[in-house]
Amino acid sequence: MRGGALWALRAAAALIAAAGLGHTLWNGVVDPGTALVFGALIAFGDLVRRAPRAGAGSTPDAEDPGRRPEDRRPAPLGTAGALAYALLGHHAGQPAHHGVLQTVAVVLAAALVGIVPQVARGHGPAVDLLARRVLTVAFAAVCFRPLHDAGRLERWLGQGPSLVLFLLFLLALTALCDAVLAAARDACRTGWPYGPLLRDELRARLGVGAATCATAVVMALGVAVAGPWTLPVSGVPLLLTQLSFHRIAAVRTTYRQTITSLARATEIAGYTPPGHALRVAALSRAVGRELGMTERELTVLEYAALMHDIGQLSLVDPVPDGATAELPAALARRIAGLGGEVARQTGVPQEVAVIVERQADPYREQPVAARIVRAVNAYDDLAGGGRHPAGSLAALERLRLGTGHEFQPEVVECLARVLARGGRAGVVPVHQG
Asked: What is the dihedral of CA 360, 362, 367, 368, to 10 degrees?
């Protein structure tokens, strides 16, 4: 069912793209100079949307091996150029009549040029990203171009502030449409709850998305008055914003890799089994998403899950197999408290250290993230340690028997749903930005 919905979105985008290309090839390009300038801007905006280097956040997302990091990196300059072309009412004082289908064709052709470097690096085209671009640009063009070409916008709004407000309102609807499509795509491919995904997409558009929409309006109005030469001037601030975003993303990736390296210290020292911290982090993130946590809360949860066993480094004698799930409560709390102190010394956010040090408390006294880490850690200890002949099923049953006094029932049931979808701790890769 989920796959059918995803293919329906792709099919709709493919039909619109085919109609646009066919119409443009058959009838020719209206005002080819303007189309070329906007196409070049869109392609350039996508070209500078760099994908991360191999090993720097290039691992697929948890529970979604098909999602690549480049699918999630924004291209605000290319998007602004595409939306500006869709909303272009005039060109240097002359009416623009390129129509909806030519708009789609130009944007698609430019986007295909922009993904050439990704194809050259072996990533292949980001099909869903192209589909979203086609659908959102088509939505904006369908809402604007018929009204403009019929002269209704000029009669109703003129060329003053009312037109600017209308364009901003239209782009806000377009951003909402894009968020709905992005959340639907992720829900179809991962099975995650749609509501939290849509909420995260909408929040993401409050920042760079708002700047993209504002720049698109400035571009469309600037070209309408003075011609295409205004595009570089109006696009420079957004280009600088895009480059700054890439720098911030690189810093976050490095930060995550540093925490991952710290988490491996317990494995290198022989205190925990290989891959334990990564499995707990990936599965905790999946459970947190199932519970509807925001993207920021998921990041904090992931950091805490990576560092949840770091307190074991203070022990003289390692815990057998590194399994803390069945330790006496006093010892488990001592290890967790020491882990919280170590986490604070590493400079992680305070809330990460709080989760680490409270993971062994009674679950009713814990924050939600600590409840998740506790349950997922116990599951991985029980399923991976070989103490249960039936493996993961027996481990999950052990957690269910402990609900009400050791583990929160809602967390255990979310964990069961994640595992039922195939998110077994041994195969789920850690999220990498």
From this structure: 90
d(CA 323, CA 381): 5
Reply yes or no on whether the pLDDT at 169 is more than 90. Answer: yes
- What is the Cα–Cα distance from 253 to 261, expressed in whole angstroms? 12
Q: What are the helix (H) ranges across 191-328?
A: 194-204, 210-226, 230-263, 265-268, 276-290, 295-306
What global pTM score does this model have? Answer: 0.75
Q: Nearest-CA neighbor of 283 among 378, 432, 424? A: 424
Count other Cβ atoms within 10 Å, centred on residue 315. 14
Q: Is the pLDDT reported for residue 24 higher than 90? A: yes
What SS3 state is found at 88? coil
Q: Is the pLDDT of residue 237 over 70?
A: yes
Four-residue CA torsion sign, 80, 82, 86, 90: positive
Say how far apart CA 416 and CA 283 lie, in whole Å.
11
Handedness of CA 24, 25, 31, 33 (dihedral sign): positive
What residues have CB less than 8 Å from 56, skipping those under 6 apart?
250, 253, 254, 257
- Please report, rounded to a whole number, the percentage of residues in the chain having pLDDT higher than 70: 85
